[in-house]
């Protein structure tokens, strides 16, 4: 249990807020108050409506944190024998020529992906609500216009997600020592009508639903990792924080003994485009307190060469997930009924 949760149990949220109010730095004060609120929200046992989900492969790897230098880039990340490759899709642009739209990136793409997967665990047809504004609010974001507003960002990331192709590749090893390489090419959603939808009153009717592809929906239900919505909401403005939370939610409950996750290995999974491990280590140290605030049972220590992970309970009780008929903890991608060694 993180120190903030111990303090909450000992002194209560009101006392911690009074102490935080005395922090002279305004940004630091706000950050600490937000952390106290987030830690308080996740201390109780979540209900079924409080759950979110992500595919186990997408918990082990990540999308770009920032806009890639080129829309032609094929994004790659690896975790052991599992590899994720995201290929940008194409569409006919305003000039009448085919152009690549680029791979999804940043916090907005992550929130959209988690939303689609959370709803997709329950139904292949995902409802987005009565309007784009309502959908953006359901992602935990304010509705703002202009070139840098959330409406433009959500439209861009939605288009990138809809058009790109996710390649999942992993190696398995059988009892006799023989190895097998498995590759799955998957799109997440079928059709593009959603991504061209605009807010009512702009001449285009809002598309209230989107359908996941059959293959991704079936694979998702087999490999879904349960998360807590309040945790996602607290980390919604930090892409590395979201990546670390989903990685720990997948990894910690599967450990049988302590593991040193070295900075180089972590960079291959959730690192930025630069690949500088010193920069990644600095960013992890800064955001980890926020991640641990929303994952009370996570046992993680920052050491010189990386993160020391200890076996920990899932952020979601097993009983809540069993009713949804998904594999609690997210079975690693591989042939049905067999886990890679």
UniProtKB/TrEMBL annotation:
InterPro entries: RepA_C
Pfam families named among the record's database cross-references: RepA_C
Lineage: Bacteria, Pseudomonadati, Pseudomonadota, Alphaproteobacteria, Acetobacterales
Origin superkingdom: Bacteria
Source species of the chain: Paracraurococcus ruber
Protein's name according to its UniProt entry: Plasmid replication protein
């Amino acid at each position: 249990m993180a120190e903030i949760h111990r303090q909450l149990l000992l002194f209560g949220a009101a006392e911690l807020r009074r102490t935080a109010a005395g922090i002279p730095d305004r940004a630091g004060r706000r950050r600490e108050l937000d952390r106290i609120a987030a830690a308080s929200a996740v201390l109780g046992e979540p209900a079924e409506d409080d759950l979110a989900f992500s595919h186990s492969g997408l918990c082990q790897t990540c999308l770009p944190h920032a806009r890639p230098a080129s829309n032609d880039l094929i994004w790659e990340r690896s975790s052991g024998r599992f590899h994720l490759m995201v290929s940008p899709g194409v569409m006919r642009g305003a000039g009448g020529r085919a152009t690549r739209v680029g791979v999804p990136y940043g916090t907005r793409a992550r929130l959209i992906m988690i939303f689609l997967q959370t709803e997709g665990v329950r139904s292949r047809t995902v409802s987005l609500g009565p309007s784009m504004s309502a959908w953006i609010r359901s992602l935990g974001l304010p509705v703002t216009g202009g070139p840098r507003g959330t409406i433009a960002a959500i439209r861009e990331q939605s288009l990138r997600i809809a058009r790109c192709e996710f390649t999942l590749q992993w190696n398995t090893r059988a009892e006799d020592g023989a190895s097998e390489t498995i590759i799955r090419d998957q799109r997440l959603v079928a059709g593009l009508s959603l991504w061209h939808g605009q807010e009512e009153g702009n001449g285009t009717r809002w598309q209230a639903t989107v359908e996941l592809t059959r293959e991704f929906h079936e694979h998702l239900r087999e490999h879904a990792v349960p998360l807590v919505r309040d945790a996602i909401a607290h980390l919604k403005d930090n892409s590395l924080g979201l990546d670390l939370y989903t990685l720990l939610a997948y990894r910690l409950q599967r450990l049988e003994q302590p593991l040193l996750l070295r900075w180089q290995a972590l960079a291959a999974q959730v690192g930025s485009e630069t690949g500088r491990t010193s920069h990644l280590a600095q960013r992890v140290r800064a955001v980890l307190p926020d991640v641990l605030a929303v994952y009370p049972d996570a046992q993680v220590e920052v050491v010189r060469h990386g993160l020391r992970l200890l076996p920990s309970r899932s952020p979601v009780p097993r009983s809540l997930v069993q009713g949804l008929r998904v594999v609690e903890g997210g079975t690693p991608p591989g042939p049905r009924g067999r886990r890679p060694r």
